[in-house]
Description:
The protein is built from 4 helices and 6 strands, in the order E-H-E-E-H-E-H-E-E-H. It has a 6-stranded mixed beta sheet, sandwiched between helices. It has one domain (4-160): 3-Layer(aba) Sandwich (Rossmann fold). Strand 4 (85-91), helix 3 and strand 5 (113-119) form a beta-alpha-beta unit. It is globular, with a radius of gyration of 14 Å. The protein is α/β, with parallel strands linked by helices. Residues 9, 11-17, 30-32, 37, 59, 119-120, 122, 145-148 line the site of guanosine-5'-diphosphate. Belongs to the TRAFAC class TrmE-Era-EngA-EngB-Septin-like GTPase superfamily. EngA (Der) GTPase family. GTPase that plays an essential role in the late steps of ribosome biogenesis. GTP 1 binds at residues 9-16, 56-60, 119-122. It comes from Roseateles oligotrophus. Associates with the 50S ribosomal subunit.
Amino acid sequence: MKPVIALVGRPNVGKSTLFNRLTKTRDAIVADFAGLTRDRHYGDGRIGNQEFTVIDTGGFEPDSTTGIVKEMAKQTRQAVAEADAVVFVVDVRLGLSAQDSDIARYLRQASKRIFLCVNKAEGMSESPLLGEFFELGMGEPHPISASHGQGIRSLMEAVLEPF
Ligand code: GDP
Ligand code: MG
């Protein structure tokens, strides 16, 4: 069985852009509007000889109780439940937010291997801006640029290491 990797994070951080990069498709809808990916979306990728399945999710607000946002949260919980590992995506340009902390709290109790991925970090692999993300208590942040294709192989080698 291929390992299953779920991409989780608040809207607009670049999850669908990363999904497209990993699966080399344009399947996921990338948008300037927060929360466009409203349900789960599966694709297959490969790094070296290791194949994997990746799940894109809509933006996640763990405590939402109504409408479309609630449905997105439910879909995200299901994706996390199905996953062997979670890539938790945050946005270095917007910085750390309360929503990121809420998601971190949710993920911690899900007992999955979690990789903190700091997106939109093109040209910033040594930036001090990465430091604040240690506060999430999710270990070392992996800087990437989903749109420029930087840092992705190194992130995925860590994610796929046990498989
Ligand atoms: P999602 O809501 O988390 O799925 O985010 P999207 O993948 O739809 O991306 C949201 C916005 O961020 C789009 O305008 C993307 O072009 C942009 N974006 C995604 N990845 C990067 C990146 O690595 N660098 C920069 N500068 N922008 C990015
Ligand atoms: Mg999306």
